[in-house]
Amino acid sequence: xxxxxxxxxxxxxxxxxxxxxxxxxxxxxxxxxxxxxxxxxxxxxxxxxxxxxxxxxxxxxxxxxxxxxxxxxxxxxxxxxxxxxxxxxxxxxxxxxxxxxxxxxxxxxxxxxxxxxxxxxxxxxxxxxxxxxxxxxxxxxxxxxxxxxxxxxxxxxxxxxxxxxxxxxxxxxxxxxxxxxxxxxxxxxxxxxxxxxx
Length: 198
Description:
- The protein is built from 7 helices and 5 strands, in the order E-H-E-E-E-E-H-H-H-H-H-H.
- Helices cover 45% and strands 9% of the residues.
- The relative contact order is 0.15.
- A 5-stranded mixed beta sheet has the order 3-2-1-4-5, covered by helices on one side.
- Strand 2 and strand 3 form a beta hairpin.
- Helix 1 runs antiparallel to helix 5 and helix 5 crosses helix 6.
- It has 198 residues and is an alpha+beta fold.
């Protein structure tokens, strides 16, 4: 398999999932500003959406959308317990969280990149309310789904990394800060971060 990624982008959480699952894959770096690969080829030819992540499977099929890739990876290695089995209420709860992170947290960061400071106040306030909710859920377990690390945690961690660059102080939410610190220390997370720097 090949994971198309860009450092600092939302391709980090599927990258973490692949490493947590212990699956073999190659990394393909994408320059998102130019929409080019390292060899100069057009990334739009690979993904017409023009963004990462994209997972190319061994048979050449391609998957996009991080939350979908996360679930696919988890299902390839069910013994990794990165997601509950399909059809269970726990799986639906995880999908609920993946959707919430994608639509209410991930997309809310958009206005915080590149706009003038005055335009960032309302999006930061919206994100703060979302973080209030997530922090409350973390009171009942060390991870979003309880005591087991899942792809939901990888996605949330990826989003929390963006707070540093968008003027959001995670220390306002001690539960989120503790979660971030704990996930950041995971070997698969450190390996993914190191690989993306290289």
